[in-house]
Amino acid sequence: MFWFQLLIIMILIYFGARKGDVFMGLLGGVGVAMFVFIFNVQPSAPPIDVMLIILAVVLAASALQSSGGLQFLVHIAEKMLKKSPKNITIIAPVISWLFTFLSGTGHVVYSLLPIMNELAIDNKIRPERPISNSIIASQQAITCSPVSAATAAMIGFMAPLGVGLGTILAIAIPATLLGVLTSAILTIRKGKELADDPEYLRRLAEGLIVKPETQQAESKKASKGAKASVAIFLLGVLLIVIMGMFTELRPSWGQGEETVILSMPYTIEMIMLVCATLIIIFGRPVIETILNGPIFRAGALAMVCAFGLAWMSSTFINGQTDFIQEHVTSIVHGHPWTLAVIMFIVAALTTSQGATTLIMVPIAIALDLPPYIIIGAWMAVNANYFLPVASQCLAAISFDTAGTTKMGRFVLNHSFMIPGLINTLISVTVATLIGSALI
């Protein structure tokens, strides 16, 4: 029955991934209903903490976007890139990683792609190198950003194991950043030089290479509200990190063994709600745009996935606890690397770090794996590049006017594969090693 129910989950994930968007979360609800009404499994509780963390973080990030704060961050990134355009292959991915880390969303990289493309061509550098690495870096940072939906889910799952946000960040930040730097360095000569690339030369000869009309941030001064909203949001991120690292700063009630410390999920929810409120007061965004922007839409999708997929996964585990402990645990404990492989496969199918976290981490916890193995394998959820149909891959290909960022004749030999695999391998390995020393 375990394998049959697991097959049902994989079938639902497959069809959910094919249809995409909200359908994936809805099929998670279908899975819960099937387990309850067909297999008579007692349902687990929906992941309320995870959903509320995502909601609070997304409200603050969406308010930041509506107030012009994200555009201000893009302006700062553009100035940083233009300071050393010759080293754009290394600098661009690091900046992409940093801005996703701070904002919790990889969407910020889209605004940087035309700038990367223009600077690369002007400096005779193959645009594929900074663009492909930056796309991967912007996604890799999601698993170390304290305000991303995937990390929010991870916090909720790992808290009962005694692993807090501070520990997760201490593992994930160096692991992902080292992966980004290693990939950028190893692919600094990837592909033909721009002057020798036949596709670029063809487009140049046909007059197709034109200087892109990128929006010059210098011509539009950032408003005081945009600057204030960025400061408020970043202060909120800093407070969350500090509160996660130093539990004594959080309020507590009771004495001795009965002492209850304010949980990190509640802490994050309160800080982000306060940040959203302050951004609205001082950033003065158009209120109506907060719930209509792309960031809130992405967050709402993450909540639907949390509601359906995580609920389905935990219900399945509750019904198969005895079988898992008797048969599956020994297999995975003997070969813990298989967890990272499975996470990578699920992430490649769902093209979502958040959805994969919601599906796989509860299963990994049920297998009674050490927390450091779970966190190390979690780095493999950044696999949405494997099949180059994700929106960020398609955007990168379209923004490369030189035609060097490609899909690949055999689909899988696309521009993002090598940087992506390097990032995944390095991040998983480093996170596992650091985690084994810290936990």
Overall geometric form: globular
Tell me, rounded to a whole number, the average pLDDT: 87
* Uncertain ranges: 213-219
Number of DSSP-assigned strands: 2
**Termini gap:** 35 Å
Strand content: under 5%
Name the helicity range. Answer: 55-70%
Largest sheet: 2 strands, antiparallel
Helix-strand pattern: HHHHHHHHHHHEEHHHHHHHHH
Structural class: mainly alpha
Arrangement of strands in the largest sheet: 1-2
- Number of structurally distinct domains: 1
From the alpha-carbon coordinates, what is the Rg to the nearest angstrom?
A: 22 Å
Provide a count of the helices: 20
InterPro entries: Anaer_Dcu_memb_transpt
Membrane topology: Multi-pass membrane protein
Subcellular location: Cell inner membrane
Protein name: C4-dicarboxylate ABC transporter
Give a brief rundown of this model.
The chain has 439 residues and is mainly alpha-helical. Helices cover 68% and strands 1% of the residues. The protein has helices spanning 2-19, 22-37, 48-66, 69-83, 88-103, 113-122, 128-140, 149-158, 165-186, 198-205, 224-245, 264-283, 287-290, 294-319, 321-334, 337-350, 353-366, 371-378, 391-399, 417-438, and strands at 252-253, 260-261.
